[in-house]
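Usage

Read records sequentially. Each one opens with the input sequence:
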Amino acid sequence: MRGTRRTRLCLAGVMAASALITTPDARAAERTDGHLTDLVNPFIGSQNEGNTFPGATVPFGMVQLSPDTGHNTGYDYTQNRIRGFSLVHLSGVGCRIGGDLPVLPTTGDVTQTDYAQYAAGFSHADEEASPGYYRVGLDSGIRAELTATARTGVQRYTVPATAHANVLLNAAQALHRPVTSTVEILDDHTVRTAITGHGFCRDTAPYTVYTITRFDRPFTAYGTWDGTALTPGSRTGHGGAYVRFDTTRDRTVEATTALSYVDAGGAAANLRAEGGRPFDAVRLRARAAWERRLSTVRVSGGAPARRRTFYSSLYRSFLAPNVGSDADGRYLGWDRRIHRARGFTYYQNWSLWDTYRTQAQLLALLAPREARDMARSVVRIDEDGGWLPKWGYGPVETNVMSGDPVTPFLTTAYEMGLLKGFEEETYRALKKNADSVPPADYPGIGREANADYIARGFAPYIWNRPYAKMGDSDYHHGASVTLEYALADAMLAQMARGLGHDADAARYAARSRNYRNVFDPATGFFRPRDGSGAFTGSADPARSPGFHEGSAWQYQWLVPQDLPGMVALIGGEQAANDRLDTFFAYDRLLADPGSTAREVWVHGGAYDYYNAATYNPMNEPDLIAPYTYLSTGQPWKTTDVVHAALTLFTDGPTGITGNDDLGTMSAWNVLSSIGLFPVQPGYGTWGLSTPVFDRVDLTLDPRFWPGGRLTVTAPGTSAADRYIQAVRADGRPEPRTYVTTARLRSLRTLAFTVGPHPSEWGTSPGAAPPVLK
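and closes with the structure output:
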C-alpha cells in the first residue's frame, strides 16, 4: 500500500506551488550576514487578531513601550489614532491586559482627560519599528520615539516650536480595567503613579503597577485631573497628570519611566539602576541585545521574505515570559508578600497552555540560562503561594484555559537539563498538583476535575456547572481536559522514573492511558462523558462539545505519549492515515498548498475554533498534528503539511494567522523551519521534517549544550525538492523520524538529503517516535 501511494505522490508532488518555501533563485541567496535586526518586522501580526505590538522592548523585558490605538489588546494596524504609548503589552494574547500609563505628547491647551478623545492621528507612511525601537510622526507635528531597557521605557519627543508642549500621563485608563490609580508630581522633573487593575478574559484578583517618570529637563507648568475635572497647578490626583514644556528653542523632550510590581521604592531603584542614559545610547544597547539574541541562529538560503518571517518569528519568541523582579532582586510573590530572588532572575507571565507545546522547548534550546530561571520562577510560585500556576499574569492567577499545562512545561525543563539542583523540589510541587486540587481559599483551580479524573479515569463534561473560581472551568471542557491530564501524567511519569520514584512512575503511566476512556467506539472519535459516565453531546465529531477551543477532529491527535494506542483505537495505521488525509485535505493540498491552507484550514476568524473537521493551524490543539505522520509510516506527508502551513507566515501586518500567544505560533514557525519539532511536549523527542533553509547554524550555550554548536543542512531544499531521502547525524545514517534530547546534545551536524519524490526514509519498523510507558 505504501509503495502504491508513494507512486501517486511522486506524480502529484511536483504540482506544489512555488510559493511553498523556496525557489532555485532563492537558494542562491548568500548566508545571512549583517544586522539580523534589519530582517525583523515588528508590525507582523498587528492586523487580523495576531495581537502583536510594534513598540520597544528588550528580550524578556518587563517593559514593552508601545502605542495603543483603541484595539482591546493594544495596537491594530487598521486604526489611525494613537491614544498613548503605554508600558505593558503581552504579545499575541486574545484578551485585554496591560496598557498601563499611556503617555501622549500634545500641543496647546489641555482640555480632555479621556484618551479616546485626545488621541492623535498618524499615518503608517511616517512610522517605523525595529527591535528595541519605534518611531511615529503624529498629525500634531510631534515626532515620538520609543526605546527600552529591561525595566524602563525611554521616550523622546520632538515638538514644534511652542510654549505649550504637553506630555499627558494617564493613570486611570489602560487596556485592563483599572480599579484605583494615583498620580503625584514630585518635583519639576518627576511624576510618580500607582495603578491597581485586574482583568484578562475574566476579572482576576487586583494587582498594582508602580511607575516613576523622570524628564531630562524641568517642566514649566503642570496639573492633574480626576475624571473630567482638570486642576492646573495640582500635584496630586487620581486620574492623570500633564506637564508642560517650552519648546520654542529646545524642541526635544526626553523621559524615562521605570516600572515595578513590588512598590514605589522598587520603581525608583529600577530608575536609578537603568535610567539616566541618553535616548540614543539606550536605543543602541537595545539593538545590540537583540542582535546578540537573534545571532544564536544564522540561516543560509531561502527567499528574502522567508528569512524575514523567520527572524521576525524568532524575535517574537524571545518577548516573554517577562522579568518580574526588580533590579535588587525583589519581586511580589503570589502570596502578596515581597520576596527576593537570589542567584537567579524571577520571571512572570505564564501562558502555559500555549507555550508548553513549542516556545518552552525553543527557549530551552536557544536561551537555556533564561529558561532555567523561568522554570525556577514557576517553582517559586508554588513555594510562595502554595500551588503551581495555570495561566499567571504578574503576581496573580487568571485560571484561563484548561488541563494541566504546567506539568509538561516543567518536565520539558527537566528533560533539557535545566532543573539541576532542584529536581526533587520541582517534582514535589508537580506531584501535589497532579494528585490533588488547591484548597478552596486559594485563587487557582489547578487540575479542577482531578478527583473525578483519578477516581473514574476521565474528567466529566458538565456544561452548566457553576464556576468555582474566576477564569475557566475544567468541567466545561471534560473531553479535552481528559486528554490534557493524560498527556501531563505521561510526562510526569518519565520524570518520576528518572528520579527513581518508580511506584509513582507506574501510577502516572497508567493514568496516561486515560485518554482511552473518552474514546467512543460508536463514533470512532473522542467524545465527552457526562456526570453519570454516559457519552453526551453531538455524535458529529465536528460539533461535539467538551473540547476547549476545538473539536473532536482537532483533538484526536493529542495523544503524543501513545500514538500507536490511539491509532489502534481508530482501526490501525491505514485507517489513521486515511483520516489524517481527510483532516488535512491532503489531495487538494498537493495540488495547491497555499490556497488549501488559507481556504480550507483557516475557516472564519481568529477565534473561530469550533464546528470544524479540518486542521486548524491558528490554534494550539493542532500544533503537533502534522507530525502524526511520523508515527504512521508516511513521514513525507509531514513535510507536505508543515510546509503548506508555513505559507501562512508572511512578512506583512497580517502575517500571523490567529493569536501569537506569547510566541507560541512564532516558535512553531521557527522550529518547523529548522526541521526539529518537539513532538512529545514535556519529553525529549524531536521529530524531523525537511528544513526550509539550505543551512542553519545554531550557537548553543556550552554550559547546557556541550560543543556549543549544531548545524542543520538541507542543500537544495525547495518547493520542488522537499522530500527527505536520507538523514545523517554526525555523518552516521539516521533512519528514525526523530532524535532524542540526549542525542541532540551530543550532535554537531544533522544533514538532510532532499529530493523531488518521497522515499523509504523513516518508514521502517522502529522508525517512529517512541511510546512513553
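Summary fields computed downstream for this record:
- The chain has two domains: 12-24+301-319+340-755, 52-292.
- The two ends are 30 Å apart (CA to CA).
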